[in-house]
Amino acid sequence: MDPFDSNSTDRANLPRNMIENSMFEEEPDVVDLAKDSTAFPSFPALDPDEVVYEPRSSRLLVRGLGENDMDEDEEDCESSARLLGMSFMNRSSAHRSSSSPYTRQAPPRSCSRPSARTMVVCVLFLVIVASMTMVLYFLPGCTFTKTGCRKVNKTTPFEPVYPISTNGEPFPWAQFRLPQSIHPLSYDLTLNPDLNSMTFTGKTVINMIVLHNTKRIVLHSANLNITKATFKLGDGKASEVTVLEYKPRQQIAVKFSEDLKAGQHCVLTLDYFANLSHTYDGFYNSSYTDKDGNKRVLAATQFEPLSARKAFPCFDEPAFKATFLIKISRKPSYMTLSNMPKASTTTLPNGLLEDKFEKTSVNMSTYLVAFIVANFTPIEKNVSEILVSVYSVPEKKEHTDYALETASKLLEFYNKFFEIVYPLKKLDLVAIPDFLAGAMENWGLITFRETSLLVGKQSSPLEKQVVASVIAHELAHQWFGNLVTMSWWNDLWLNEGFATYMQYMSLQTVLPQLDIGNLFLAVRFRALDKDALNSSHAVSTEVNTPEQVEEMFDSVSYEKGASILLMLNASLPGDQQFRKGIIEYLKQFNGSNTDTDDLWNSLTQVEVSAQHQNVSEMMSSWTSQKGFPLVTVSRKGDQVTLTQEHFLLTSDNATHTSSLWNIPVTYVNDSCSLAPECRQVFTLRTKSGTLKVPESVKWLKLNYKNTGFYIVHYGDDGWTALKEALSNNVNVLTSEDRASLIHNIFALSRLGRVSFRLVLNLLNYMSNETETSPVTEALLQLNRICQLLDKRQEQDLVSRMKEYIQHHFESLMHNQTWGEEESVSKQELRSAVLETACGLNDENCIERAKALFKQYVNSSGTVRIPGDLQKVVFTVAAQSNEDWSTLLTMYGNVTYDAEKRKMLQGLASTQHARSIVWILKAGLKGDIIPTQELPLVIDSVCDGFAGYLIAWDFIQNNWDQLIEKFPVGSFAIQRIIKSVTSQFSTQAHLDQVHGFFSSLKERGSQMRSVQEALETIKLNQRWMERNLPTLRKWL
Ligand SMILES: [Zn+2]
Question: Do β-strands 225-233 and 426-432 pair in parallel, antiparallel, or remain unpaired?
Answer without folding.
Answer: unpaired
